[in-house]
Amino acid sequence: MLLCPVIGKLQHKRVVLASSSPRRREILSNAGLRFEVVPSRFKEKLHKASFATPQAYAVETAKQKALEVADRMYQKDLRAPDVVIGADTIVAVGGLILEKPVDKQDAYRMLSRLSGKEHSVFTGVAIVHCYTKDGQLDTEVSEFYEETTVKFSELSEEMLWEYIDSGEPMDKAGGYGIQALGGMLVEYVRGDFLSVVGFPLNRFCKELARLYHAPRAPGAPRPVQHDSIPAVDTFEDLSDAEGGGSDPARANEGLEACGAQPQAPRPREADLNGVTDSQPPLPVGLLELMDGFKASKALLAACKLQVFDVLKERGPLAAADVAREIDASVGGTARLLDVCAALGLLDKSDRGYSNTEMASLHLASDGEQSLHGLAAYHDGPVWGAFTHLGRAVREGAAWTPEPLPQAPHKCSTEATLQFMRASHGLSKLTAQHTGQDGPEPSFLPTGCTGALAHKLVQEYPCLQVTIFALPEVIKLAGDFETDARPSERVHFVPGDLSSDSLPPADLYIVCSLLHDWPDDRLHGLLSRVSGCCKPGETLDLPFLPALAFLHT
């Protein structure tokens, strides 16, 4: 636990790692650092030719990653974390920067270039300290890089392709992961092995020691210098306190937190101030759960106001222009746009606001895989049901101004259409994936608009599909378009799933939301399906996440 005095300086700070890399997360966790993970959305499109050296490119990318996370978190909560850590690892050979391969051929070109040669691995790191000054985010950035030399063995074509086909190269800088199968390709490493894995822990701890080094009292002995990570005694000046005096109990407490034995009292500057494990960790996940509804409501409000439609058609636009298009106040619109940008739904630049690719695809009403109908449904009846969740728990049944449209015969036509629009958008999206692994025999999916059914018959020429749904639903289903061509092998049969006889089929897929059905009604349905099944036939009940049981 020699790192405890160093890592301990961050113990009571809110630290964020601006990376989704499981390798960086593991390295820092093993060192005892407590932190949150907030992956950066910085688009790594810096012009490499504008940097004098590969390491300068890695450091700048790491800095931009960390700054993007700090700014986004501040915009979201109006408070920033204390420290944001950004990192970027690149491979360079002959002055050429190799990042992550885009496909297998790109991986082959990278690994062929490295075969039998030495190359450099640069990991740039940025440590961003965040402050609030005059209501604005202020940052101080400390940055460094670590260079490690790696030598590859001569690689045969067979070994190259065997490694590429394993899939490991595709998310690794330079096309290999030294900590896993890629280690078989390496002849030797000269320098920091962990830097090649993704994070130079040794240099990081030295940088922390430098950043948190307290001023030395006049005449105090200078600590011994080390080339590697120093022992506890080397960091005797890391105390936040200034001045003389001693506090042996506190010093011993800090040493015990590091796993070391208490020593005799020392001067005040040797005190390991703050390096204890007495404080419970910040319940970040719990706080995010409490605050999460605000982000959902911002997304739903932006959909309702057609923000994504306006920006898809005319963006980028300034906040005032968007406000004019959606007939809203400029101030309110600007705040909503900033929140959407912080959530990663919009891009913000000097030219104004524009949709991200995801927003144009899924949140614009005319998007190719639009979930706009699902957003409207959640913003309407579902939001109303959850608003009165406490009342529903007390009374044992959902309470909304109008029943949730899962039984269309109890709802207005508009409410049923709203539910069908939500189901249709989600079905079109999931059909793109379900259709790839669907079954060959005929089967019976229950209800709605036929998006999944048409996709399946397109994928499987011998498939016959029957959609068994309420007459009210079938009457409205013709208003919905599907991505696949209409087929005579898709049939709509009116009926009530809970009481009417089921058409024969080899596979029954029950798409209705059954979690709110009473047990006797659900058992009755399953018994009738079982009675219709021949030996070898199947019933598919799609998996329901735990939150689904709160819908009604």
TrEMBL record:
SUPFAM superfamilies in alphabetical order: ITPase-like (SSF52972), S-adenosyl-L-methionine-dependent methyltransferases (SSF53335), Winged helix' DNA-binding domain (SSF46785)
Required co-factors: a divalent metal cation
Superkingdom of this protein's organism: Eukaryota
Any GO BP annotation: methylation
Domain O-methyltransferase C-terminal: 447-536
Keyword field: Hydrolase, Methyltransferase, S-adenosyl-L-methionine, Transferase
Molecular-function annotations in GO: nucleoside triphosphate diphosphatase activity; O-methyltransferase activity; protein dimerization activity
Location of the region described as Disordered in the Swiss-Prot/TrEMBL record: 258-277
Chain ranges of the O-methyltransferase dimerisation domain: 287-365
Protein name in the entry: N-acetylserotonin O-methyltransferase-like protein
Species this chain originates from: Bos mutus (wild yak)
Organism ancestry: Eukaryota, Metazoa, Chordata, Craniata, Vertebrata
